[in-house]
């Protein structure tokens, strides 16, 4: 059953309670490889479900617009201080509702509509809010996109520099949603300094790796750091903006009153809990375990003939081009879900297929590492992925069903926060 127990919910609304219980069971029985997902601790779950959700707190600690903040202010202050300590930053704002609003606040802090922003192209692994055309950031600002080399699948920083010198952006984003390699923050910082741009490191995917010492930190290189608080950081669905003291006021003003009203205090408390967990030595072991699992899984997939973008991974994320397997990403992802392996279909660089029916798969190892799976299980996971892709090509549902049973049997030996 769900932990913490949802007995009151079951009594008041059994339909919703049943769906919540079923979702918890689904998460327990599947190998969850979506790179942006994880399992939060029971403590984070409990914090998210507290009476803090009852309270409005527009403004910042000590400068609120509503009364009754005597206990909310210390909670938000704790979250801020813990963020500053974990990441080694001068300033932190823990109020953004999610990653996209956090990035929008950065635009509001530094740009006027129509001014130039530079970010990684979405098909190359960037994020919608880094200036892509369908996003408000691509509609309201002049967007310049960089990508990756076709022969290596990696960013060519010489080309990035040439583009920046030609276009003179005021804001440069580094980071994204499907980047399997280490982000070279010092090199991006040099480019930003040369063209007089503000460098923003979007570390939403790798924040937990940075906190745990398993990926280089952007601190000291990027003036502004944007991140979600879930994914590898293993917190609730929220976001943070961190910066040098020089930009603190601009960032805070952009978040509130620029874009948001009252923060979600229950989320703020859960962020504080997650950051407290990230400050412990065991979190560093966890972060390095994520990378070890990803690299072991990447090696096992390569041995089975899968074409990995950039040839492998340095972090939690693996991007597979399925072209040589004779199947597109979407049918492969759906077959894998039926087999008990949850990931997402994804565009790969220079993909000839449409975004809603792309050539690739994106997967990550944060959640399975939380469950306790280690490098010794990664060859078996790769085997199941390989067998499922073959079965999908051959309409072999019996094999897919068999694998789902084997996955469930394996995971029965690995506990999950949120399910007993």
TrEMBL record:
Pathway the protein contributes to: One-carbon metabolism; tetrahydrofolate interconversion; Amino-acid biosynthesis; glycine biosynthesis; glycine from L-serine: step 1/1
Family matches, as CDD domains: SHMT
UniProt site positions, description: Plays an important role in substrate specificity: 230
Residues binding (6S)-5,6,7,8-tetrahydrofolate, per UniProt: 122, 126-128, 245
Location, primary (coarse class): cytoplasm
Needed co-factor(s): pyridoxal 5'-phosphate
Keyword tags: Amino-acid biosynthesis, Cytoplasm, One-carbon metabolism, Pyridoxal phosphate, Transferase
A single MF term (Gene Ontology): glycine hydroxymethyltransferase activity
Catalytic activity: (6R)-5,10-methylene-5,6,7,8-tetrahydrofolate + glycine + H2O = (6S)-5,6,7,8-tetrahydrofolate + L-serine
Residues that bear N6-(pyridoxal phosphate)lysine: 231
EC number: 2.1.2.1
Statement: the UniProt record of this protein carries the keyword Secreted: no
InterPro entries documented for this protein: PyrdxlP-dep_Trfase (IPR015424), PyrdxlP-dep_Trfase_major (IPR015421), PyrdxlP-dep_Trfase_small (IPR015422), Ser_HO-MeTrfase (IPR001085), Ser_HO-MeTrfase-like (IPR049943), SHMT-like_dom (IPR039429)
Domain of life: Bacteria
Residue span(s) of domain Serine hydroxymethyltransferase-like: 10-385
Gene3D superfamilies registered for this protein in UniProt: Aspartate Aminotransferase, domain 1, Type I PLP-dependent aspartate aminotransferase-like (Major domain)
Pfam families reported for this sequence: SHMT (PF00464)
Subcellular location: Cytoplasm
Subunit organization: Homodimer.
Family the UniProt entry places it in: Belongs to the SHMT family.
Function comment: Catalyzes the reversible interconversion of serine and glycine with tetrahydrofolate (THF) serving as the one-carbon carrier. This reaction serves as the major source of one-carbon groups required for the biosynthesis of purines, thymidylate, methionine, and other important biomolecules. Also exhibits THF-independent aldolase activity toward beta-hydroxyamino acids, producing glycine and aldehydes, via a retro-aldol mechanism.
UniProt-listed NCBIfam families: PRK00011.1
Name listed for the protein in its UniProt record: Serine hydroxymethyltransferase
Organism encoding this protein: Kibdelosporangium banguiense
């Amino acid at each position: 059953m769900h932990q913490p127990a949802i007995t009151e919910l079951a009594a008041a609304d059994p339909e919703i309670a049943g769906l919540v219980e079923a979702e918890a069971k689904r998460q327990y029985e599947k190998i969850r490889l979506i790179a942006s997902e994880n399992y939060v601790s029971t403590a984070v779950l409990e914090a998210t479900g507290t009476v803090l959700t009852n309270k409005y707190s527009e403004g910042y600690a000590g400068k609120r617009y509503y009364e009754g903040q005597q206990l909310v202010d210390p909670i938000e202050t704790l979250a801020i201080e813990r963020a500053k300590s974990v990441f080694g930053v001068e300033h932190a704002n823990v109020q953004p509702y999610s990653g996209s609003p956090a990035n929008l606040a950065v635009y509001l802090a530094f740009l006027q509509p129509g001014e130039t922003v530079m970010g990684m192209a979405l098909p190359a692994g960037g994020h919608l809010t880094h200036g892509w055309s369908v996003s408000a950031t691509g509609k309201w600002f002049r967007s310049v996109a960089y990508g990756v080399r076709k022969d290596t699948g990696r960013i060519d920083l010489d080309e990035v520099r040439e583009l920046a010198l030609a276009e003179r952006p005021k804001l440069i984003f580094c980071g994204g949603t499907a980047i399997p390699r280490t982000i070279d923050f010092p090199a991006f910082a040099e480019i930003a300094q040369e063209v007089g741009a503000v460098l923003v490191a979007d570390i939403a995917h790798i924040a937990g790796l940075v906190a745990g010492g398993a990926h280089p930190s952007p601190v000291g290189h990027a003036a502004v750091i944007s991140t979600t608080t879930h994914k590898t950081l293993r917190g609730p669905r929220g976001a943070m903006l961190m910066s040098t003291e020089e930009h603190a006021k601009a960032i805070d003003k952009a978040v509130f009153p620029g874009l948001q009203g009252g923060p979600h205090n229950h989320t703020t408390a859960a962020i504080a809990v997650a950051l407290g967990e990230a400050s412990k030595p065991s979190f560093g072991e966890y972060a390095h375990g994520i990378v070890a699992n990803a690299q072991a899984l990447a090696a096992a997939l390569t041995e089975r003939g899968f074409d990995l973008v950039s040839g492998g991974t340095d972090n939690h994320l693996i991007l597979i081009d399925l072209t040589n397997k004779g199947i597109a990403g979407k049918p492969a992802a759906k077959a894998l879900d039926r087999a008990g392996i949850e990931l997402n279909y994804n565009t790969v660089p220079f993909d000839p297929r449409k975004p809603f029916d792309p050539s690739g798969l994106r997967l990550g190892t944060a959640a399975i590492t939380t469950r306790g799976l280690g490098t010794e299980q990664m060859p078996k996971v790769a085997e199941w992925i390989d067998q499922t892709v073959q079965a999908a090509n051959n309409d072999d549902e019996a094999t897919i069903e068999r694998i789902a049973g084997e996955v469930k049997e394996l995971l029965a030996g690995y506990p999950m926060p949120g399910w007993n």
